[in-house]
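Response to reviewer comment R2.3. The reviewers asked that we include at least one raw input/output pair. We reproduce the pair for AI-2E family transporter here without editing.
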Amino acid sequence: MPASLNADKTKSALRTTAVLSAQTLVVLAMAYVLLRVIGAAWSVIWPLVIALLITTLTWPVARFLRNRWHWKPALAAGVVTVLFLVIMAGVLVVIIVPVANQSGELADGVVNGIQQVREWASGPPLNFGDDDISQTLDTVVAELQSRASSIVNYTLTGLNTVVSGVVTTVLALFLMFFFLKDGPRFLPWLGRQLPGRLATDVPTVMTRSWDTLGAFVRSQAFVGLLDAVFIGLGLWIVGVPLVLPLAVLTFITAFIPIVGALFAGFVAVLIALVTQGWVDALIVLAIIVAVQQLEGNVFQPMVQSRGLGLHAAVVLLAVTLGGGLAGIIGSLLAVPVAALVSVIYRYVREQLSDEPPPPDPEPEPEPDHPTDPAPDGEQPSMV
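Raw output as returned:
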C-alpha cells in the first residue's frame, strides 16, 4: 500500500514554493525596470562606460605621476589625457600612412584580382562568358538603382552613427580627464553622504568593482596583444605587405568581440588576395582562423577567468548570452558585467556568512592631499 502524503508538509512545501515564486517575480520585475531605465539613459551611460574602460588603462600612469613625482591631480590628468590622444593619433598614422603609400600597389592588385575572378568564372565549371558577366553587372546596377532611396537612408543612418560616435568619444575623453583628476576623492565623499552600513558597504563594493574592471581591461589588452603578435608573425612569414598596420588593427579590434575579429581577418585576407594571390590568401585565412580559435577557446577564457575570478565556462556563457541579448555591445560588456555581479554576490555572501571576511587591501596613499577630503558641496568624479 503506497504511503499517503502528509498534509502539513505538503502545505508547507506549497507555501514555500509560492513565496519563492513571488520573490523571484519581484526580482525579475526590478531587473526589467532597471534595464528599461538603462536603455532610456543609454546616451549618457555609454560614454560613461567607455570613459571608465579607458581610465582603467591610463590610471596607472596618472597614479605614478601623482605618487612618485608629486604632480598635482589636474596636471597629471591633463598630461595623461594628452598622451593618450597622441598615442591614438600615432596608431592612426601607423595604419593610414603605409596604406596610403602602397595604395597604388593595392589598386593594381584589386584590378588583377578582379581579372583573375573573371578568368576563373569564364572557365569550367561555371563557363561564364563576357555577355553573362555584363548581364550580371547590369542586373546589379539595376537593383542598386531600384534601391536608391534605401541606400540614401542607410547612408544618412551611417552619418548619424558617425556623428554620434564622435560626440560619444569627446564626452568620454572629458569624463576620463575628470575621473583621473578627482577619482580618488569620490569614495570618501560618497561614504559621508550615505547612512549607516551603506557608508561602508557601497565604497567597499565599488573599490572591488574598480579592481575587477581593471583586471578585465588588462586581460583583454593581453589577449589582443597575443592576437596581434601571432597573426602579424604569420603575415610576415607569408610575405603579406602592411604587416604592422594589420597587426595594430588586430590589436584594436580585439576589444570588439566577434565583429572585430571578423573585420580584421577580412582585411588581412583581402590584402593577401590582391597582392599575393589565392594560395597565400587561403594560408592567411587558415592562420587567422587558428589564432582566433585559440584566442576564443583557450587564451581569453583562461586569462579572464584568472583575472576576474570567473570560471572559463562562465566567461563563454556570458559572452554568448550578452551577444544574444544586445548584439556587439552586449558581447563587449557581458564579461565585465558578469564579473561585477560576481563581486556583489561574493560581498553579500561574506556579510551573510558566519566566517570573518578576508581583509581588504590597504588603499594607496594620495600624497597630494592625503588628509584633505573633498568638501561636502563638491561633486567629485568616480574612478
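The longest helix spans residues 198-238. The CA atoms of residues 152 and 158 lie 10 Å apart. Further pairs are available on request from the corresponding author.
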